[in-house]
Structures are given as structure tokens and as C-alpha cells.
Specification:
The chain is an alpha+beta fold. The chain has helices spanning about 15-25, 70-80; strands spanning about 5-10, 30, 35-40, 45-50, 60-65, 85-95, 100-105, 115-120. It has an eight-stranded mixed beta sheet with strand order 2-3-4-1-5-8-7-6, with helices on one face. The two termini are about 15 Å apart.
């Protein structure tokens, strides 16, 4: 994945059937965590979550993308400076490690969730 990878996350009623469909399209399975999977959707990230009684469709549907770390930090600062509330505040994982990553979630005025991420392993330097 490159640093400008688009990300879409959906809840599906039958996870294995959905995986089978996307694999038929030639999409590669990159992560399998039983209740959710990650797919390389032609160079972009598609995450599918198994629907449950407590996780109905649209409960966590969102879209987003991967940014460079510097762009991610600047955007988080800009949102704070403009008093935009975070649905999920900026979080760092594995800070100062080769697989360092960060993410935050905001909502647009129509309450669509947007997740913005970075991964150091995707930085092109």
C-alpha cells in the first residue's frame, strides 16, 4: 500500500460469503481476525466486519485513507485548531517502532465517519 491508500470499512451479514466474493474479483486477503478481515482492494484497503446483534450494519461503516505521518499530524492539529470534535481522538501505536501507526476518526456534518491513518512502514523515504 502507498501512503495515499483509500480505506473503506463495512459491516456485512455474512463475512465468509463476502470474502469469497471479493476473492473471486481477484482481491487479496491480507488480514483475517475471525470477526473482521482486511483486503487489498486493488491497492486500497477494504475492511469487512461480521454483522452481529451488537454490531449491526452501518454501526461502524466509515471511509478514510492512509496519509504520511507529517500530513496526519498537520491535519489533526488543523482540526483541533478549528474546534472539530474527534469521534476517536488521535491515537499512536508502537511509537518510535518500525511499525508505528496512528489514526483518528472525525465525522462530517452529515455524520459520515472518516478515519485517517498513517503507518511508518508505508512512508516512502
Amino acid at each position: 500500500m502507498n501512503t495515499h491508500t483509500f480505506h473503506l470499512s463495512l459491516v456485512v451479514p455474512d463475512l465468509r460469503k463476502a470474502v469469497e466474493f471479493y476473492r473471486l474479483l481477484g482481491v487479496e486477503l491480507t488480514e483475517d481476525h475471525n470477526s473482521w478481515v482486511g483486503l487489498d482492494f486493488f491497492g486500497h484497503q477494504l475492511v469487512l466486519h461480521q454483522q452481529t446483534r451488537t454490531l449491526p450494519a452501518v454501526a461502524i461503516d466509515h471511509f478514510g485513507c492512509f496519509l504520511s505521518k507529517s500530513h496526519w499530524l498537520e491535519l489533526a492539529r488543523k482540526l483541533r485548531d478549528n474546534d472539530i470534535a474527534f469521534a476517536l481522538p488521535p491515537q499512536l501505536r508502537q511509537e518510535n517502532q518500525p511499525d508505528e501507526s496512528g489514526k483518528f476518526v472525525v465525522q462530517d456534518p452529515a455524520e459520515n465517519r472518516i478515519e485517517l491513518k498513517y503507518r511508518s512502514s508505508n512512508e516512502s523515504t
